[in-house]
Amino acid sequence: MITRFITEIQTAFNPFSARAKSARLFLSYLPPNARSSGMAISTQLLPRSSTAPSRLFVKFKDGKELDLDADNMGIKSIIEEVDRHSRILQKADDLAAA
Questions:
Q1: So where does this one cross the membrane (predicted)?
Q2: Does the pTM of the predicted model rise above 0.85?
Q3: Which of 9, 23, 87, 98 is deepest in the core (most CB within 10 A)?
């Protein structure tokens, strides 16, 4: 997963819910130095009795925002969506450097 262009991640999920698996796994895919490299990560843990859906919000350096439904999307779908925009930014960065 290309994380170089991500500036902010916000998640809200019930850690005891099976439907929150995608949100938990997405956070585990982030590199250990993500916060120190300038990425703002905020996580809100919902109570065990909460029925609110899992939420995943990703913001990129170019201002694009993705609000993903982590309840109904699998981890592969979430990573695919994030990488799709990251690859676009990577191409633009490569062209600008050349």
A1: none
A2: yes
A3: 23
Q: In whole angstroms, give the CA distance from residue 89 to residue 92.
A: 5
* 3-class secondary structure per residue, 18-39: HHHHHHHHHHHHCCCCCCCCCC
Contact 19, 66 (CB under 8 A): no
Could you read off the pLDDT tens digit of each residue along the chain, which spans 98 residues?
889 999 999 999 999 999 999 999 999 999 999 999 889 999 999 999 998 999 999 999 999 999 999 999 999 999 999 999 999 999 999 999 87
Q: Encoding tokens for residue 62?
A: 């170019």
Largest alpha-carbon pair distance within the chain? 53
Q: Please give the single-letter amino acid code of residue 35.
A: R
